[in-house]
Amino acid sequence: MSRPPMAADAGEKQMKRSCNRREFLKLAGFGAAALAVPSRPRAAAAGARASGKRLNVLWISCEDTSPDLGCYGDEYADTPNLDRLAKQGRRYTHAFVPYPVCAPTRSSIITGMYPSTIGSMHMRTGLKGYQTVPPPQVRCFTEYLRAAGYWCTNQRKTDYQFACPFTAWEKGKDWRSRPAGEPFFAVINLTVSHESRNWPKKNEKLTHDPARAPLRPYWPDTPVVRRNVARYYDNVTKMDQQAGAILKRLEEDGLADSTVVFYWSDHGRGLPRHKRWVYDSGIHVPLIVRWPGTLEEGSVCDDMISLVDLGATVLSLAGVPVPKHMQGRAFLGPQKRPPRPFIVAARERMDLNSDDHIRCLRDKRYKYIRNFMPEKPYAQPIPYRDRMPIMQEWRRLHQAGKLTGPQKLFFRKVKPKEELYDVVADPHEIDNLAASPDHQGVLKKMRALLDKWIEDTGDLGGTPEDELIERMWPGRKQPVTADPKIRTAPAAGGKTTVTITCPTEGASIGYHLGHDKRWRLYTAPFTAAAGTGVTAAAVRIGYKASQEVRFSP
């Protein structure tokens, strides 16, 4: 893999980064050394319950949308429900995803870790069934909530680059499924705005007028492109209607005042040069939070936020200590940390045939992009994306030699090694300032910040994928979580004390009692009525779950 010489000491820095990657792979449990796993999240329960107040939290997530809402100033958008939510809460103007594609970003959200740190940065893999194996201390953050007594349910998106552990979520559609009195954390994911919904439909009747569709300067202005953009906005309106129905249901249940509502998207628009790219069109997302009685209605916040921060923020709101290993940082609640001075986003391989390795660092004024594989063109074929009418039209006009100005940039045979944009003056990132004499100070500063981030986070992006797979799945076979062991002892009052252990480092344990099939998260020994049967199983992220083990008195 060729890499650009970014500075005179680039070789030394690369050597340090390689050492960091090797050390990380050892610490991740792939070598002889291994990080000590902190105790299961039993402390979370004591901390949250002692705080008294038990907020509910609802996430309304959607797919493949940028901040294309009326509340963000988009006059073409028709989004009354989310606009109303923004009036009732806080709208964030500088929210970004760590990866411009769904599964890597969701792996980051559920773990509070960067995909490039835990090895979940490639979109799919050539090895059938392969799953990322993070270091042993990394868990789905919902386990900490469940340990604190929260009912956690997800309807329905668990595409994390690893199979969702059965210990992460309860079974249920939303808060209505929970046992009476339990606080809840519910995720409802809306798919109507997904990239695939932007493909042409038979006999479609668009509600948005294609003639008024706002086009980006790098797209050709043709009827095909305009209809594609109008179709996207139609889907955003449908998504808004679905979000409105969820909010109405929450209000009907009398829970609106005791629930913190988050709305966000997993990455930017599912359109060419948006999704899969670290330009703002791919990583800048809407984020709205309504917290009645705490966040000022109609407020706007321009803090730099990465969605890797979402999990830590929910733990903060719930009164649950944020684990020290988490790279996400709370932006609300008692554990709120100072705002980020910048965010970092990245791209690796997309699908099975589009290799790349890109990092970007963005503050409120500038975006720095480093293309580690400049020999790879922007417009590499990606069959899934190439079904999009905009992409087909764009390629057709390129082959016919009819593109002009910025429309040509995406079809260059090679990429620049570095890109620098003034995102305030140039929001579409057209004018690369990397060679500008007036911006060399900015370039040098941002280059150094990215180097430090790569080193500090143990960025695995340069690790050959075959090596990464082999270290996570030795012999290219999925490791298996060891079967748990159930021990019992007599307790006072004729009851039984149950202790469950698992020798697999980093494993989570679930259990259920008697005929109750609800999987509970094991955090510490517990007492049960004498004669109660116990069933237990264990799983570590990326591992195959253990067999179920039963104790029958």
Explain this structure:
With 553 residues, the chain is of the alpha/beta class. It has a domain at 485-551: Immunoglobulin-like (Sandwich), CATH 2.60.40. 25% of the residues lie in helices and 18% in strands. It is built from 12 helices and 19 strands. The strands form 4 sheets. Strands 1, 2, 3, 4, 5, 6, 7 and 8 form an 8-stranded mixed β-sheet that branches. The longest helix is centred in the middle third of the chain and has 30 residues, at 223-252. The protein starts with 9 loop residues before the first helix and ends with a strand.
Dominant shape = globular
Secondary structure tally, helices: 12
Structural class based on helices, strands and sheet pairing: alpha/beta
Oligomeric category: single chain
Q: According to CATH, what is the topology of the domain at 485-551?
A: Immunoglobulin-like
CATH superfamily of the domain at 485-551: Immunoglobulins
Largest sheet at a glance?
8 strands, mixed
Helix content: 10-25%
Distance between the termini: 60 Å
